[in-house]
Each structure stands twice: as C-alpha cells, then as structure tokens.
Amino acid sequence: MNFVKKIIRYLKLLKAFSIISLMDQMAYPHNFWLAIITKTLRIAIIMLFFKAIYLKVNNISGWGFGEALFIFATFSLIDFIANVTFFRNFLFWFSKYLKNGFFDYRMVKPANLQFMTAFQQIDFMDLTTILPTLLLYWYALNRMTAVLSIVNSILYFVLLANAILFIYSFVLILSTFNFWTIRSTGWGRFAAGILWMARYPTDIYSGIFKTVFNFILPIAFIATWPAKAFLGILSWQNILYSLVFTAILFWLANRFWNFGLKHYSSASS
Amino acid sequence: MNTISVKNLSKTFESYKKTPGLAGSFKALFSREKIFKKAVDDISFEIKEGELVGFLGPNGAGKTTTLKMLAGILYPTSGEAKILGYTPWERKNEYKKQFAFVMGQKSQLWWDLPAMETFILNREIYEIDKKSFERTLEELTELLGIGDIIKIPVRNLSLGQRMKCEIVASLIHSPKVLFLDEPTIGLDVIAQKKMRDFIKHYNEERRTTIILTSHYMEDIGALCKRVIIINLGKIIYDGPIASLIEKYAPYKVLKITFEKEVKKSDLEKFGKVSVFNGDVFNIEVPRKESARIAAEILNKFPVDDILIDEPEIRDIIRLIFGKGKV
C-alpha cells in the first residue's frame, strides 16, 4: 500500500514538473515554434542519410534496409524518451543548477533528490520528434521480412525498458562527476556522442570494437539487441547478460551518486 | 526544550592553490597544491523554541557554512547537531518538511514564470493540502504587501519584490525552523525595513525558531535579542546584544547640542570626538565616568541639550573585527 502511495506521489510530482516546464518553454513563443521546426528537420535529414546509403548497397553486415531502419526507429524511440525526461537534466541543467545554487534549494526539499534532478525539466519541444519516429516504425515494419511473434514482441519491450535504464545509469554516473568538477558541460557531448553510435547495428564494428560495444560499453543494449530480440535472433544468454549488466550498472550508479552527494561541498555563499 | 543544539561542529574544505596568471593556470592542470581551510572550527550552541538569534561575522567567517550544515546541504567534518530531534545531514524528508532555508544571494523561483507557479510546485513537493496552502499564501502575501506581484514573471520584478516572493516560496509549508541567510542583501533602506518588520512579526506570531545572518547591523539590532558572533570559524561571542555592548564598548556616547559654537579642542580632553559640526557634538567617554563628565560639561559650557547614549552595534562590530581579536 505504501509503495502504491509512493508511486502516486511521484507521478503527481512528475505532472507538476511537466506543467511548470511546459509553461516555462512557452514563455518565449518564437523560440518554442522554432525549436519544433528544427527538431523535425533533424530527423528528416538522418532519414535521407539512411536512404542515401541503401541506394548504393542493399545490406550492411547482414542488416537489410527495413531491419536497419527498425534499429534506427528503436534508437529514435529510446533517444526520444531519454531526451524528453532525464538526459538534459543530468548532463546540462544539473551542472548549471549546481553553479547557481538552485541545487542547494532542491536539497532541502522533501522529495527524492535524484528524482527531482532527473525530471525537473520535461522537454516538451522534443515531444514532436515522436511523430517522425512513429512513421519510421511503420515504414520499417512494412519492409521487414521477419515473422512477428508475441513472445518476441514482449521481449522487445522488456529490452526497451532495459535500454532506458541502461542510459539512465550511464548518464547518472557521468553527471555525478559534476559534484567535484561543477563546471563540465563536456559530459553532455561525450555521452551524446557515444549514445549516437547506437543508431547503427553494432555488427558493423569488427574485432575489439565489436566486443567493446556489445559487452563492455554495451551500446548494443540500446537498439541493436532489442531489435534482434524482436526478430528472434538474440540468444537467451545475451538477453540475460544485458538485464544483469544493467541492474548492476544501475546499482553502481546509485552508490556513486550517493557518494557524490555526501562529498558535495556546495557553491560558495 | 532546545530546538537546535550544536556540539563541536567543524567543517574543513579542501581546495587547490594556484599561482596567478595564465602560466599558473597551465601548471594547475597538471599539479596542484592541496590546501585545507577550516571554515567552521569546533562550534557549539543551543537555541530554544521561538528564539530569533543573529549570526554575525565578516565575509568568510563560516556563517553560511554553518547554516548549510544545519540545513543538511553539507556534511560536517566532525561534530553533532540535532534540530527538532533530527540530524540534518541524514536528510530525512520528515525533517525537510519542518524547516526552510532562504539564501539571499540565490533564487529558487522560476525566472521566466510568475512566482505563483513556483508556489504551486512547492505545494506538490511539500504535499500541502489546498486549503492550508491558500490560507498560508493569503496570510503571507498580505503581510508582505504583494498581491498582484505574484502573477508577474519573476524576471520583471525588482530585487525587493523578488525577495518577498522568495520568502513566500520558502514559508509556504509553515516551517518550525527558519534559516535566513542575508535576506536583506542588496535591498534599499525601505525594503530592508519592511523585510525586518515581516521577520519580527512572523517570529512573534508563529513562534518560529529563526537563525538570521546579515551584514547589516540594523537587521540584527532591530530583530535579535541574542547574537552569536563568529570569526574565522570560531564563536567569539554568544549572548544578549545588551551585554555585547557593555563587554566590547568600554565607552558611552554623549550627544550634545550647544547654544552657540564651541571649539573642538575644548572638548577633546573629555574623550574622543566622533562627530562635530559647529554646535552638535558626539563624544565617546569612559562608561563609568559618563555621568560625571556630562555634569562637568553642563556646568562649563552653554549646553542646549545633552543625551547619554549607547554606542551603535555597527561601531562595536567594527571595533571587534577591526582589531582582529577580542
């Protein structure tokens, strides 16, 4: 019962953060519309890029056009969820709030600090990118030859959730460094750079990089493996590996965050 | 019962030394010399429920660091503190719901939105029911005299108006303990006075336990019966303002108006002349002899009016910190 109460409480908080973020972003209407236009354009450009590649070849490392697009669609969905919610909060806003003292105000508020840090700005300008992403799914599914199964679809959604938790943990670790460095927007670009590599099937890498991206810095968890699970070509060992790896990473990230909080020395008066 | 009790609290910061200039900056990228600074050094004090205590000290004395530890923002290096029975740095939500921290130089308001939106967000965070939220809001806005201001985007407000909104945002959950760090900083004289009146009223009405830090002696003098003076991380005085004056100012001030002009040199033998312009003089005389000297001046000079007064707290503080020791 207590657990349910807690969930309801934090859903309410999320709603409150969403409302205030939306109002904040609408405070400058020109900016609001401009952002929506540029973000839609960005997706269109990436699609053109894909199309251009597959005009030359019809298969990259065993991935056909439809399947590769499906990976990209998966990536777009994960990217969308991360961007709307925690990604910028951790990697851009957090260091700003540490510096200007806003974070100190958050610290004295009676709610989970990590939750407030992760979700205080919900990025509504990014909401529009869900439309091209859904179109992409439709387009990709129409071009895939694989037979769909319920089990594989369920696995796909489980691995999607896992992918989000994986990125969350990864980003949480990076942003925790801010407690010591305070000024470090460089983490944002670093993280974005690594995560963007997950747009392509990790099978295009060979040798050591293949091992790294599948098992050590496993960006394969983000799009390639969920897509493979959907197609029924991911081994159960790999599924288990990605779930356990993410669980451990999440646990470690939280320990590190708490360690950082304990050693936080606050911006000066 | 004590609301706040602090025992042997210390905080040491680590930082790095850097030689000046660009070359120094490059050097610092590779090797840096660690330095330790004791911001708060073994302080102890207790504060009772409903007390309003002033924290005084020059910049860097450790006032803000102490408040940040009491608010649970900073972990101490050593020592203990209990506030309302909680250890602040355990950061329990039950504790957070019962205190507020106002930082004069920082803002919790959303810059591009009216302050009201921040209040509503805080209502959610503090889980305040609608009725008591509206009651508290009405009471606070009335006391501070800000009706419509809360509907204007914060960026369009004056500093004084913004500060009032910060106060409302911090008090919306009716805290039992309040830490005010420089709440009047940068405000003009009238706004300062209003803020002071508000704090006094709030403390008296609600019996809220308050610690106030300020650079402005007027704030402390007008609001606090008890003052804690802190310098270089140590408490150098803790007691009533009245005794502070007796202890550190061995003089009183004679404020005299003469019927006609008097030479400064004639009065200098009685004590230090701190103010003079023609017929108005302030003379600092030894505390014990003030009555005798006043009588003597009355006898010898054409006095229109004479007043024996305590020195201003501002001057005493200057005296204490000017010497660098007590």
Structure description:
- The complex is a heterodimer of chains A (269) and B (326).
- In chain A, helix 8 runs antiparallel to helix 10 and helix 8 runs parallel beside helix 13.
- With 269 residues, chain A is mainly α.
- The longest helix of chain A has 28 residues.
- Chain A has 13 helices and no strands.
- Chain A has one domain.
- Chain A starts with a helix and ends in a 6-residue tail after the last helix.
- Helices cover 75% and strands 0% of the residues of chain A.
- With 326 residues, chain B is an alpha/beta fold.
- Chain B folds into 2 domains: 244 residues, P-loop containing nucleotide triphosphate hydrolases (Rossmann fold); 60 residues, Alpha-Beta Plaits.
- In chain B, the strands form 3 sheets. A 6-stranded mixed sheet of chain B has the order 5-6-7-3-8-9, with helices on both faces.
- The interface between A and B is medium-sized, with 29 and 36 residues.
Give a quick precis of the structure.
The complex is a heterodimer of chains A (269) and B (326). By secondary structure, chain A is mainly α. Chain A is 75% helix and 0% strand.
How are the secondary structure elements laid out?
The complex is a heterodimer of chains A (269) and B (326).
Chain A: H1 2-26, H2 29-56, H3 65-84, H4 86-100, H5 102-107, H6 113-119, H7 130-142, H8 150-176, H9 178-181, H10 186-196, H11 208-216, H12 224-231, H13 236-263
Helix pairs in contact in A: 3-7, 3-8, 4-8, 8-10, 8-12, 8-13
Chain B: E1 2-17, H1 21-30, E2 33-48, E3 52-56, H2 63-70, E4 78-83, H3 93-96, E5 99-103, H4 115-126, H5 130-144, H6 159-171, E6 177-181, H7 189-206, E7 209-213, H8 217-223, E8 226-231, E9 234-240, H9 241-248, E10 251-258, H10 264-267, E11 272-277, E12 280-286, H11 290-300, E13 303-309, H12 313-323
Parallel strand pairs in B: 3-7, 3-8, 5-6, 6-7
Antiparallel strand pairs in B: 1-2, 1-4, 8-9, 10-12, 10-13, 11-12
Helix pairs in contact in B: 4-6, 9-12
